[in-house]
Amino acid sequence: MSTRGERISEQRLQKLNNIRAMGIDPYPPRFKRTHTARQTIDLLGQQEKESKSEQVTVTVAGRVMANRSMGKVSFLDLRDESGKIQLMVGKDRIKEADFNLFKELDIGDFIGATGKVFRTRSKEPTIEVNSLTLLAKSLQALPEKWHGLSDVEIRYRQRYLDLISNEEVRKTFRLRSNIINNVRQFLDGRGFIEVETPILWPDAGGATAKPFITHHNALDRDLYLRIATELHLKRLLIGGFEKVYELGRIFRNEGIDATHNPEFTTLESYEAYADYNEVMKMVEEMVSTLAQQVLGTTAIEFAGTKIELKPPWQRISLREAITQHSGIDFVQYPNAEMLRSKMREKGIEVDPQKNWAHLVDDLLSTFVEPKLLQPVFLVDYPASLSPLAKRKPGEARVVERFEAFAGGMEIANAFTELNDPLEQRERFLQQARERQQHDVEETVDEDFLLALEHGMPPAGGLGVGIDRLVMLFTNNQSIREVILFPQLKEKGE
To answer: What's the whole-model pTM score?
Structure first.
């Protein structure tokens, strides 16, 4: 027995054959429209405002989303990216060939229509169709609840159905594009230039993360998808550029959860002669400006909490925040065994393989981060957590680093950049030694160290998670809601 889906496809295939038998190309190469749905509605409103009685003829195009028969006439809902417009089709109002075509149409088909614009008795802007063109025959039916598709598995795997079905989803991705555009305008306005750096690297560096590995056949060597853009952008500071940024994809072969996807979008910027204090001011100004530009307000709602993004944001030391929320002052437990023991004493489950820095990071993510709903900067991190940041004068174990949080998640990370090539080499080597203790291969980027030995000006560097910023602005608690095509398990898993 055939399934309902198979019967629908067979029915639509028969209609396709009928259309071709009429001598009609069901997939023509082009179509010229004069107005979008929104422009048509605006045009009608303008005509009415000016009290013009003459009806204007327009040509529109879009997807058929509804078909209602009312006796001698039928009404179609036609949707394009700008919105929806109603079409009225009457047998005695169009050519016989066009009416025969109309009878073969289904919901989901793309059509073009020409006719005069008027308003029905129910005040609905409508086009009285006098010419009809099929632009693309849909051979698959839309989901039964296309007006509100809710199956998460279908929504993510078949994002096109999600976009067809859910206006809020389309709104999210329009907003995402607007945010990225305004990030560029903000930085360009401050004298930054946008650059592009390699995605394939001979060594993965600039962050601590597990990379994806690929193989280059012509060179016969393994390469890594970048886990950060930092080291190449710093090379540009060394080369003489003073303000640079890159918006691009980063790849990390790690876990998937509500705030992590294996490939994600970041902004990284570097400014010569700035430090982390100046970068902090830039971040709070940028985020609040973006909110005002794309949302019209700096007061937003996220996960049921009202959040005010207007500067100045609160600044708290990492040590103070962790002590306050976990009851553990990590400075008092200067090695992994001591800190691990104290965490167990507090009833915290501890991974025995993690080093001291990762244990501190666990305290942050477990006890502090979920409580940071209003925007805040956590400042001054242990040096062992930040191998690329400059030490704070007078505090050998602390570096000038901040992370920005809002909505209970990290949205930005920044340093006063380490530019001492000898200390940077030692930091890299120490990091490599620690990772090798856990059977993780770690290489030192000698080319970057060579570049650094030529001199890099003091600088402030910044990384912003664009996906999380979009989550915050669109009130979405899952990163999959703001990435068009998120990574998923195989079907059935």
So the answer is: 0.92
Q: Give CA–CA dist 90/81, Å, rounded.
A: 26
Residue 205 structure tokens: 């560096």
Q: Residue 257: is it exposed, middle or buried by C-beta count within 10 angstroms (0-12/13-18/19+)?
A: exposed
For residue 481, the 8-state DSSP code is: G
Contact 285, 294 (CB under 8 A): no
User: Which domains occur in the chain, in start order?
Assistant: 4-141 (2.40.50.140), 163-313+374-481 (3.30.930.10)
Distance of alpha carbon 379 from alpha carbon 321, whole angstroms: 10
CB 456 within 8 A of CB 270: no
412 backbone dihedrals φ, ψ, rounded to 5° = -155, 155
Quick one: pLDDT at residue 346? 86
Give the pLDDT score at 117.
Answer: 97
Residue 15 identity: K
- Positions of the chain with pLDDT lower than 70, given as ranges: 1-5, 145-148, 435, 437-442, 492-493
Measured CA to CA, the distance from residue 487 to residue 493 in angstroms comes to 13
pLDDT, residue 437, reads 66
Q: Give the three-state DSSP class for 258.
A: coil
pLDDT given at position 154: 84
CB burial string 337-346: b at 16+ within 10 A, e below: eebbebbeee
Look at residue 147 in the predicted model and tell me its pLDDT: 56
- Type and span of the H or E element at 169: helix 167-189
Judge contact between 259 and 468, C-beta under 8 A.
Answer: yes
Q: Which two tokens stand for residue 479?
A: 């990163």
User: What's the rounded Cα separation, in Å, for the pair 171 and 181?
Assistant: 15
Nearest to 378 by CA among 394, 363, 395: 363
Angle in degrees, 0-180, between the axes of helices 318-326 and 356-363, rounded to the nearest 10? 70
Residue 365 DSSP symbol: I
Rounded-to-integer distance, Cα 357 and Cα 339, Å? 10
SS3 category, 323: helix
Q: How far apart are CA 341 and CA 356, in angstroms?
A: 11
Sign of the Cα torsion 154, 160, 161, 162 reads positive
Q: What was the pLDDT predicted at 439?
A: 54
Pair of tokens at residue 121? 């008795």
Residue 75, strand partner residues: 68, 88
H helix intervals, 396-465: 421-436, 446-452
